[in-house]
Write a structure and sequence with these properties.
With 601 residues, the chain is of the alpha+beta class. The protein folds into two domains: 52-79 and 180-224 and 233-250, Penicillin-binding protein 2a (Domain 2); 254-596, 3-Layer(aba) Sandwich (Beta-lactamase). The protein is 39% helix and 21% strand. It is built from 21 helices and 21 strands. The strands form seven sheets. Strands 2, 3, 4, 5 and 10 form a five-stranded mixed β-sheet that branches. Strands 12-11-21-20-19 form a five-stranded antiparallel β-sheet, sandwiched between helices.
């Protein structure tokens, strides 16, 4: 018996359902293709703009701050790349609050996904606090306090590798910006001259401030594409060209600078002084080869930046010069033709009674030469010399050598000092100014004024910037008078003279000690003194001036000869050796041996 053949045809109802399903799918595919075509043809620019809004950014390109170098091209200030991490708290809290609402959703899958993402953000913030080395609760407080803001810094000037670790946390609204941080290789040894920049890389003290416009350069702009973590994918175009800062070459010789700071620091600590300064000046170019101050600070350590530490005292602080004014008094009298270089001054009976004021010497020196007035530092002798000349002659000479005028050496906030006009001087004023009271000066002003004795009466403008070309000086006194005063100052650095501790083996030295009482609360305090020594070497053909000032040494027997002169001797000796300046006080055979050794002694 044959079996009945089964039919492969579906019932009409099933065929209808399949046709309907295929029709729906084809319709949807058609709609999608049409939509894709429409977007590709008619909405391409709009879509590109939307993508750019989410991925393309216009970022600031910070300029590379120019280097500061010494006269021998040794680096004194350089910039290194760093990153600063910032946050948009408003966006962060918007995302976080949205996730919190998502965890309360009726949709179990959406709630679970939101909860996972919320946990990721909270853990990421904890990891961020760890990376930034701050307490998590403090980070939360900072974000909570700024939740209405669109920009706050979380950390400034951190290493690039740390910034990359933070980017890998993939936290919303947290990103970083490239910057530069200043580094100072010499640290505290040159800190007062160089100064420092603030957190935004703008100079606020020293050369960083006075030359900021030249050093800073100009920021640029560029368009970039970043990924979801804020990392750079591609540079698109340069919108504005970045201009790097220019290099600034200082007149400083870092070898001399280091020695000056070391010797000053040792002596200031040894005598327990309040402060101190040293200036080394090339008399023929006016260039400052070294300038050191105490107390010092390290510009690489921001926590150490206190105003009383970073003030450049050699330029900004003024003081009454005391006996270091006496060579200038004698020079003024010679220029005024009030005296001759071979005149004798009668200092008997060892004091001058001027009514309310009595000017005294330690003993009665009797009738003495100008050399001995300087060697013994006779106040009576200097006062009598001052009283012999016309007040106008004294004022004009002091003004010509820079007393009462800003040096304009290139520092910010240079002190002008004080030199009152001569029509206001009484007899006591004239006499007191003769031995260094009644005028105020900076240490740089005094070093500059002393340079005329080494140049034969020509004053060259002083500068902290290295000179590319030779500068012209101004004649401020006769050559014969400058040589005469220089010869007199050599007597100060002899046995039984006040500056004997300033002697340097192999070199003749000319200089002058100074000890001045400080004027506090309308009276001179005999327990508070400023001591100084200013000198030139080699005295037979001077090349350098070294000026030293120590403020309020707290030891017995305070004087410029005991405290400041030894600093001068060590700093000057080092500078002469570093610059290979030949000795002028060696026997012929020893000098020949010095030359054979190539200038080393």
């Amino acid at each position: 018996m044959r079996k009945a053949r089964t039919s492969n045809k579906l019932p009409p109802v099933y065929r209808g359902r399949r046709f309907a399903l295929l029709s729906v799918l084809l319709f949807l595919i058609g709609v999608l293709l049409l939509r894709a075509g429409y977007l590709e043809v008619f909405q391409q620019q709009w879509l590109q703009k939307q993508a750019d809004k989410r991925q393309m950014r216009e970022v600031i390109v910070p300029p590379y701050r120019g280097m500061i170098v010494d006269r021998n091209e040794e680096s004194l200030a350089i910039s290194s790349p760093v990153e600063s991490v910032w946050c948009n708290p408003r966006k962060l809290f918007k995302v976080r609050n949205g996730l919190i609402e998502g965890t309360k959703s009726l949709d179990e899958d959406a709630s679970l996904l939101a909860k996972v993402r919320l946990d990721e953000i909270d853990v990421g913030l904890q990891q961020l606090a760890t990376l930034l080395r701050i307490d998590f609760s403090k980070l939360q407080q900072k974000l909570q306090k700024s939740k209405s803001k669109q920009f706050i810094y979380l950390a400034r000037q951190i290493p690039p590798e740390l910034s990359e670790d933070i980017a890998n946390l993939n936290l919303p609204s947290i990103s970083s910006t490239s910057e530069y941080r200043r580094f100072y290789p010499m640290g505290e040894a040159l800190s007062h001259v160089i100064g420092f920049t603030n957190i935004d890389d703008k100079g606020v003290e020293g050369i960083e401030r006075s030359m900021n416009q030249l050093l800073a350069g100009a920021s640029g702009k560029k368009r970039v594409v970043r990924d979801g973590k804020g990392r750079l994918i591609e540079n698109i175009e340069q919108v504005k060209e970045m201009v790097s800062g220019q290099e600034v070459a200082l007149s400083i010789d870092k070898r001399i600078q280091f020695q000056a700071y070391k010797e000053l620091k040792n002596q200031v600590y040894q005598v327990n002084a309040k402060a101190g300064s040293v200036v080394v000046l090339d008399i023929y170019t006016g260039e400052i080869l070294a300038m050191a101050n105490m107390p010092g600070f390290n510009p690489n350590v921001r926590a150490d930046l206190k105003p009383y530490k970073y003030r450049n005292r050699a330029v900004m602080d003024t003081f009454e010069p005391g006996s270091t004014m006496k060579p200038l008094t004698i020079a003024a009298a010679l220029e005024d033709r009030a005296i001759g270089a071979d005149v004798m001054i009668d200092t008997s009976p060892g004091y001058i009674d001027m009514g309310k004021t009595v000017i005294r010497d330690p003993i009665n020196y009797g009738s003495i030469t100008l050399d001995k007035i300087l060697a013994k530092s006779s106040n009576v002798g200097a006062s009598k010399v001052a009283l012999l000349m016309k007040p106008s002659g004294q004022w004009k000479f002091l003004s010509r050598v820079g007393i009462g005028r800003r040096p304009n050496a290139g520092f910010p906030s240079e002190a002008q000092g004080k030199l009152t006009y001569y029509d206001k001087w009484g007899r006591v004023d004239r006499a007191s100014l003769g031995y260094g009271y009644g005028a105020s000066v900076s240490l740089l002003q005094m070093a500059h004024a002393y340079s005329v004795f080494g140049t034969g009466g020509v004053l060259y403008p002083t500068s902290i910037i290295k000179r590319k070309d030779k500068v012209s000086g101004q004649r401020v006194m006769k050559e014969k008078n400058a040589h005469a005063v220089l010869r007199m100052m050599r007597a100060v650095v002899q046995k039984r003279a006040t500056g004997k501790r300033a002697k340097i083996d192999g070199y003749h030295v000319a200089g002058k000690t100074g000890t001045a009482y400080k004027f506090i609360n309308k009276r001179y305090r005999k327990d508070k003194k400023i001591v100084s020594f200013i000198g030139l070497a080699p005295a037979s053909n001077p090349r350098l001036v070294v000026a030293v000032m120590v403020n309020e040494p707290r030891v017995e027997h305070v004087s410029g000869g005991r405290i400041a002169a030894p600093i001068f001797a060590k700093v000057m000796a080092s500078a002469l050796r570093i610059l290979d300046i030949p000795p002028d006080n060696l026997p012929a055979e020893k000098l020949a041996r010095w030359v054979v050794k190539g200038g080393s002694s």
